[in-house]
Amino acid sequence: MRLGQAPAPQAPTKQDLLLEAPASAGDGTYPQPHTTIAGGTPALQHPIPGAAGAGHSLTPSNPHPLKPSYPGSCGAIGPDMMMRMNQHQIDELVAAATEVRNQAHAPYSGYLVGSAVLTTDGRVFTGCNVENASYGLSICAERHAVAAAVAAGCRDFAGIAVVTQSDPPAAPCGACRQVLAEFGDFPVILAGLDGQRESTTVKILLPLAFDPATLAAASEEDPDSNP
Known about the structure:
CATH class: Alpha Beta
Mean pLDDT: 73
Low-confidence stretches: 12-83
Number of helices: 6
Strand order of the largest sheet: 2-1-3-4-5
Number of domains: 1
Shape: globular
Number of strands: 5
């Protein structure tokens, strides 16, 4: 390399980008990972092919810096998990959750919730809360979105957005945290209606979860317990 010549760009590694294939523009280029949590917004390059579903186009919301306000969301456990998604993906996920929130059926509480799950193959599945006169039969938005993804054959999640009318944005209830933990640890974006956003992860929301690994460990200790 001659003096003054810029070094050749390095291709992103698998560790650099969680969603290499779906985030690719088809020409070998990739969007920059989201690395700015407070102050500034990273540049956006390419949308996620098919992320909003066939025939459905989303306009990214006005970017807002994310604030990892939940304990442990960055620092002690390493870089904030939001680095796994770029700003465009975050915006589209929040936009999808905001849009589906308008379809919520909440005549008893008046509390509308929208949720959107991003899968590792780049698809987005949405859900809203559906209340019932028999209160215990009500369905949360997060579980609705997860069920839609599973019904479509998706079980690998890259992130989930939850949009509520609360300020600060509300986190998933305990039952939803348990359902999310069934599918591993991934970023959780909490968003309000006025642009507020906070980030956390499934593991932070539900530490020491009862998950598939718990059952597997029990089966190894007592083979007769799970014939």
